[in-house]
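Hey all, quick one. A colleague (J.T.) asked me to put the MRU job into the tracker so the inputs and the structure tokens live in one place instead of scattered across chat threads. No bug as far as I know, just bookkeeping. Sequence used:
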Amino acid sequence: MREQLLAAEKVQAIDWHGGALYLLDQRLLPQEQVWLRFDSAAEVAQAIRDMVVRGAPAIGIAAAYGVVLGAQACLAAGGDWRQALEADFQRLAASRPTAVNLFWALQRMRERLQRLKDDQGVLEQLEAEAVGIHASDREANLTMAQLGMELIRKHQGSEQVLMTHCNAGALATGGFGTALGVIRAAHLEGLVERVYVDETRPWLQGARLTAWELAGDGVPVSLNVDAAAAHLMKVKGVSWVIVGADRITANGDVANKIGTYQLAVNAMHHGVRFMVVAPSSTIDMALESGEDIPLEERSGDELRLLGGRPIAADVAVSNPVFDVTPADLVDYIVTEKGVVERPDSEKLAQLMCRKRLH
Ligand code: MRU
């Protein structure tokens, strides 16, 4: 199936060539497809903060390339380049707090740096590490797509009605997608009747990005307001909610886009299966439970304004952009190392000891 999946891959959001990083500006999609060029770590950090690039694996990959850009500049400047590069690591780490893939990728870059005995070939080594992070995320997506699709086939042989939230597609990853990778693979296998996509207020990742990716693949897709989810589960026969994750803690709690938690509660009530699809780089074994995850709060203007125009009363705004779904509401966590059913600390610890499946 791998070849079939690769042939179905259309959208990419991250490109590295000629010693520069290019990002598809996700703030403008789907109306405009504009690629921006980045030449410094500080610019990449700003792009992550501003959501030019977003989605947990994608911001990790972008940050890894950001380190390469930082190293290019620090080496060219001479002097204590390692100390200068440390400031870039800090800048990149401060860009967004919740997705652990960002810190995981920076740690990989740091370890590669620490393994270097002298200054010979520093740039080549760092570039190889970043390219490797990018390529292995794409590979992980292909493995997860197949594993998740097989779960859907195992439980229900015929066409299913699915629901997803936010964007966990090619745009959010190194390619193909996590939750959308599973949905794409299931569509290729004739297992998808329709996908309901929550618009995902306030940034509209569902309306702007997921609906666009799925429609581009010819997947039957309907867009709905976030508040319609429980009703649609009841009246449209939704059988699976499939989402990505920004951080999964050692006990199986899942941080993902705000609204995921209420989907999981509603899924439990309606007997809908809840699948989380995420590479092992999203699993943070250093945190015991979801209570320890730093959850990003973004500007109130994301709610006060719509298309730049004021729409709300002049009151205080609460804008947490992630929430935590407790492990006991999750049926499956699908990773490139395998599938965990009804996650708990013991099962996640066992999973993390395994090698990637492909
Ligand atoms: O704020 P965003 O758009 O970066 O949030 C993205 C999500 O919540 C995704 O569901 C998650 O990162 C998984 S992406 C494969």
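Adding what we noticed when we looked at it: Residues 147-352 form a domain with the Rossmann fold fold (CATH 3.40.50.10470). The chain has two domains: 2-135, 147-352.
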